[in-house]
Amino acid sequence: MSDRDLYSRLLLATGNGYPLSYPQPSDDLPLECQVRGLEIGDVGALSSDGSFNVFFNICRSPDDPSNRFGVPVGFERLDLGSNPFISKKAYHRPGSHISNTKIKKRRLDVDAQVDNVQVIAFLPVGAGAVIEVSSTSTKAAVLLLPYGGSRLDVRFVDTFKDLALRHAQSWYAFVTTLRTGVENGDLYLITGVDKSVSWGVAAAGHHTERGRISLKLSAAQTGSAGGSNTWQWEANTAFADMGPRRPAGEAQSTLNQTVFLRGYKIAIPLGKKLSQAVRVGDSKPATFLRWFKSFGWSTTPTAAVEPPRDDGSTPRNDDGSTPRDKKMNTVEYSPTTRPFHPADAINKHILESFGPSAPSVVVIHDDEWSSVLEKDEKVIPDESELIRRIFAKYEPTLMFGGVYLRG
């Protein structure tokens, strides 16, 4: 497991969505897109370096810089209508932190020690200010937001779900032509973002010397006298980073650093070629639980679906075989290079459970898997437990030929 993957795994349990260990917009984006940062409607994939690669945006016109590679066949722009977002500009307070464990903060440049205080510890931000952040946990990850941060979510998330169910096949077909190395299950449709103007991230998987994880941040002046200040890291942990590293001419106060994103993780059956767009017909909603039972399968989720004993009641095909005699549909994942995401196990389980009769697409939203986390849970539960909780709360439901979770 890489250091950046450790950071994301640990902060996933905080329930804020997916934590990017490198929140800064990619340098290869058009300048206009860099200034905006990640946006609601972006379709892309997580990167092993902790960033997010954007391929196109469903909320912008085909000729927008966000769609610099073009758009998928049959592209449908989503009309957001009026007042489409829920905005919380001061969601994260200045000097706040997000961590999977207890964190202590104190000012080293003043006489009084200030533990677990947010604004006081970081402000005023003057040249020479030094903040120490420490934890005695064996596994710790922390996101520091010296200037706080905002939260933006789409108000009507179901419209994004419906579009993904209808067009996921063509989206994958399009991304495959870009030769980006995207695999099945990688596509991510963003419906919410947390952004900041400045950040620091760190993670450690074991005790450092003296049994402590220790970070020091120093405020250094940038530019001429009277200019702004930036935070610089000094760390003895396995992984630490800070930002932004702004290009020349970009304002220091630009709110374009995405520390958390939320959205739909999208997967399709491996048996359907990604190089061809598949037309998905409309269908009325129907639950997959009845489909499970019609094939003689258990509705109780497990990490791996085992074939039931045939007592003669299982429906048979024209050739006398049962659906289970067919080769199981598989969904391949690359654990060595693919960033961990809790929704991947759920999507994979649903697709493999239906074998050759798998739906055309499965979509899982971050709000769904995070809703089954228990209070004060420090880590994401293992796959079998996560799937058990999901199926105890949600019902897999068929619409537009694909599956979503209905609560």
How would you describe the overall organization of this protein?
With 407 residues, the chain is α+β, with helices and mostly antiparallel strands. Among the domains are: 91-153 and 199-243, no CATH class; 264-406, no CATH class. The protein contains eight helices and 19 strands. The chain has helices at residues 3-12, 31-36, 119-122, 158-177, 288-294, 342-353, 366-370, 383-393, and strands at 18-19, 42-46, 52-57, 85-92, 96-99, 104-107, 130-135, 140-145, 149-154, 188-196, 199-204, 213-221, 229-235, 239-243, 257-267, 286-287, 362-365, 395-399, 402-406. The longest helix is centred in the middle third of the chain and has 20 residues, at 158-177. It starts with a helix and ends with a strand.
SSE topology:
Blueprint lengths: L2 H10 L5 E2 L11 H6 L5 E5 L5 E6 L27 E8 L3 E4 L4 E4 L11 H4 L7 E6 L4 E6 L3 E6 L3 H20 L10 E9 L2 E6 L8 E9 L7 E7 L3 E5 L13 E11 L18 E2 H7 L47 H12 L8 E4 H5 L12 H11 L1 E5 L2 E5 L1
Antiparallel strand pairs: 1-15, 2-3, 2-10, 4-9, 5-8, 6-7, 7-12, 8-11, 9-10, 10-15, 11-14, 12-13, 15-17, 16-18, 18-19
Helix pairs in contact: 6-8
